Structure formats: C-alpha cells, structure tokens
Amino acid sequence: MDAREADAITGLLKKARTIAVVGLSSNPLRPSHGVAAYMQTQGYRIIPVNPQIESSLGEEAYAFLREVPEPIDIVNIFRRSEFVPEIVDEAIAFKPAAIWMQEGVMHHAAAEKARKAGILVIMDRCILKEHRRRASALPRWAKCGSRLRRLIRPWPFP
Description:
CATH superfamily: NAD(P)-binding Rossmann-like Domain
Distance between the termini: 30 Å
Oligomer: single chain
Strand order of the largest sheet: 2-1-5-6-7
Structural class: alpha/beta
CATH architecture: 3-Layer(aba) Sandwich
CATH topology: Rossmann fold
Number of domains: 1
Order of helices and strands: HEHEEEEHEHEHH
C-alpha cells in the first residue's frame, strides 16, 4: 500500500459514520458479523444489507442497498466477487465516500466504474484490520487478536 492510499483510508475512517455492510450475517461466528460488531463498538452506525435476515447487531436489515433510506458513507462488501458489479451499480446511486471490498473480494471492472463516479475504492482489505492499524486511541486489550475475538464472538469460538 502506498502512502497516498494509506492517507485516503485514514481520512475515510476518520470522517465516515455510517457503514452499510452488504452480506452481513446475523450469525456471530461469521466474519462479517465480527467485523461489523467491532466497527459498531468503535462508534460507526452499521446498516445490515442482506435479504436473508431481518436484523443484525440491533439494526434493521434491508434486502438490497437501494432500499436503505439514509445516506451511507461506506459500502462494505462481504459477498463473492461475482456479485460485486450489481452492488457497485446500486452503491453509485448513493454516492458513498467509499466502496470497501473485504479480503478476498475483488472486481477490477466494477472498481473502475466506481472510481469514474468519483468514489474511493478499497479492494481485498479488511476494514477492521485497517481501522486497528490507525486507531491509536484503542485500549491495550484491543490490540490482542484472541482477546478481541472473545469480545465480539460468543463462546465457543474457533
């Protein structure tokens, strides 16, 4: 990651307040749930987007991004790469500050389309990890991965 991209991520995480998590699971053992729960504890509003659930993390879920009735700062994608173009098309209508594709999620053509629409695109990166790298005010225990997992996942956990 170059310095310009790192600065863009830092600025984004400082300014953003609302994250729509596409593919958020209500299952606490799923990575999407753990990442979103962490971001929620850091003060971000999480909006679940998943047609399979009614709510997650105490927030009402929406079946599709286009149904979200409020502004979104970050669209965080936890879906397989083949679903990204449709999600990006919906996201462009919202004009979020960024579209964030989690680790293992990449789609270069969709990313280019979003960039042409003036949206910052982050691919194949974990928003939790990037936040933790930049959050100097985190308490000491939050820097310990196993302790953090215990706090955001119920027992037993892998």
